[in-house]
Design goal:
globular, 49% helix, 15 helices, TIM Barrel, alpha/beta, two-stranded antiparallel ribbon, single chain
């Protein structure tokens, strides 16, 4: 069995510089599966920075992937602005009530203070602990919900999607106040020693048209990314679902890497924006990582590498979205083992040989 010859930071640094590496970077996006690693309930993580850090560090050490992402759910910023979030005992949190019930209440909203409001201080504590314990060997990132998605949690998803057609001025006001919270939290994440990792599922072309994305999401995303760049950090942007129609706009927003959902094609992304962006993805989180066999995981990893290993701006093997909580540990191990066995450099001949062997 192949073993790593470099730390994640050594690997990423060399890969970014076009120097030899032992394997491609690999990131099974471990969220609440980390609770299973240390044997606690999912609901124990959001409000306990020390426990959240312990879980994410333990998961990293167990599997050996290349980026730690401090994350529990998408609602932290909205909750800090007044939304009501429910925390089932052992399942991922969900939005119970938006921060406001009608658009006339927008002026009641205030930007969140990430050092005081909601669970944001706990997440920042987890980031600082993780950076202190393993930050010299692996990049630690902090999950940051994008402005448009966070805005949808402030007023409700159905209300926001209706307003983009009926009251665009109100949507812009909502996105602006949402952006202020995003900027505050981005600053705090960077000040903690981490890099913000952006997730913006409501900006998906599955939900709003590319024209609406350009009008209501792009300006605020760009301002947020510009700020992160001004602090010397690169930006990975994940938007769920079908995103082919907005890849070029994601590049225009300034993303350095886009995380491709399994509903999209790495081959198409490489052809459209591969000369501008690093690609990351897109092994199916549920069908393959949760429900598949290790053999299926191995072949899915190889398939993604075959599609994107020669992307001009580089490629990170990853799940298409955050892993379901109950993802078998064996499948996460297999993802990393497959990448290690494929190694680097990669050739079509090597991939064909491994595919033949792994298909038996």
């Amino acid at each position: 069995m192949a073993i790593d010859q470099m730390t994640p930071i050594e690997r990423m640094t060399a890969y970014n510089q076009g120097k030899p590496v032992d394997r491609l970077p690999c990131v099974p996006i471990v969220g609440n599966t980390s609770a299973r690693v240390i044997g606690v309930k999912v609901s124990e993580l959001p409000g306990n920075g020390k426990l959240l850090a312990q879980a994410q560090i333990a998961a990293y050490r167990r599997f050996g992937y290349d980026i730690i992402r401090i994350f529990t759910d998408l609602y932290g910023q909205a909750e800090a602005m007044g939304a009501v979030v429910r925390y089932p005992e052992d399942e991922t949190a969900y939005l119970d009530k938006p921060a406001i019930s009608e658009i006339s209440q927008i002026d009641r909203l205030k930007p969140a203070d990430p050092y005081r409001d909601g669970h944001l201080p706990n997440h920042l504590e987890a980031m600082k602990i993780a950076v202190g314990e393993v930050g010299k060997e692996v990049m630690v990132t902090g999950a940051l919900t994008g402005p448009f998605t966070n805005a949808s949690f402030l007023v409700g998803t159905e209300t926001l999607t209706r307003l983009v057609g009926k009251n665009p001025e109100a949507v812009h006001r909502l996105c602006r106040i949402s952006l202020e919270t995003c900027l505050n939290y981005a600053k705090a994440i960077i000040d903690s020693g981490c890099t913000p990792s952006l997730t913006d599922p409501m900006s998906s072309a599955t939900i709003i048209s590319p024209q609406k994305f350009k009008e209501f999401s792009l300006p605020y995303l760009k301002e947020l990314i510009d700020y992160i760049h001004s602090r010397g950090k690169t930006v990975t942007l994940h938007i769920c679902g079908k995103t082919a129609k907005i890849w070029e706009l994601m590049a225009e927003a300034g993303a350095d890497c886009i995380s491709i959902d399994n509903a999209a094609s790495l081959t198409e992304a490489k052809a459209k924006v591969g000369d501008r962006l690093r690609l990351m993805g897109n092994v199916k989180p549920s069908e393959i990582m949760l429900q598949g066999t290790p053999a299926e995981v191995r072949l899915a990893v190889l398939s993604g590498i075959r599609e994107a290993y020669d992307n001009p701006k580089g490629y990170i093997v990853a799940s298409g979205c955050s892993l379901p909580t109950e993802t078998p540990f064996a499948n996460i191990h297999t993802m990393l083992e497959a990448v290690r066995e494929i190694g680097y450099p990669i050739t079509p001949e090597k991939l064909t040989l491994l595919e033949t062997r792994w298909s038996k």
